[in-house]
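Two entries, shown back to back:
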Amino acid sequence: MKEAKQDHTAPQTPPLASLLTIRQTAGRYPFTEDALRALVLNASDRFNSRGEKIQGNGLDAAIIRCGRKVLLDEHAFVAWLARGRKTNGTAAQAGA
């Protein structure tokens, strides 16, 4: 009898241990809770009152919302920080 192949194409979800609240993230990284809430608020693209698109900061890939609860995927948050460091580092070197 042949065994059926399992389909492993289901979307990967982060382990629960890597999900942090805003308060927990502020305790582990050099950001205040208010600064993190501002980053979450400005994470995705949005439009101003004139209909012009305002680009988000890209953090939306690390945000998980469940009702009012906002969780951050720690691994995605650290990757987002690293991307910002690379971007800022190359911009600083280009101007020098």
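entry 2 starts here
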Amino acid sequence: MLELIPISLPKVNMDTLSIANEREIINEDGELERQCAKCEEWWPADPEFFHRNPRHPRGLHIYCKACMSEARRKSYNRKKARLVLNGAPDYRPLKKGGNQ
């Protein structure tokens, strides 16, 4: 599983920036960074760290990929437990080694 390592938050004057919202900044290298709405870590605002979302002005989801993966896994396990309690036959197990 890909483990994402957060980058340090640079010192940026937020008054001089014209960006979409307070969760986005331009770092010292002039690159756009985005704060995950769940873990609140800062990541480069690109599809390597955030899933695509055409409904958002920047085209990226508000949660980083690591947080989305965790949320999907929790949702899957919650649904699995509910079905097992209700006597559902054979629930599809999570794939080992794949995208979980």
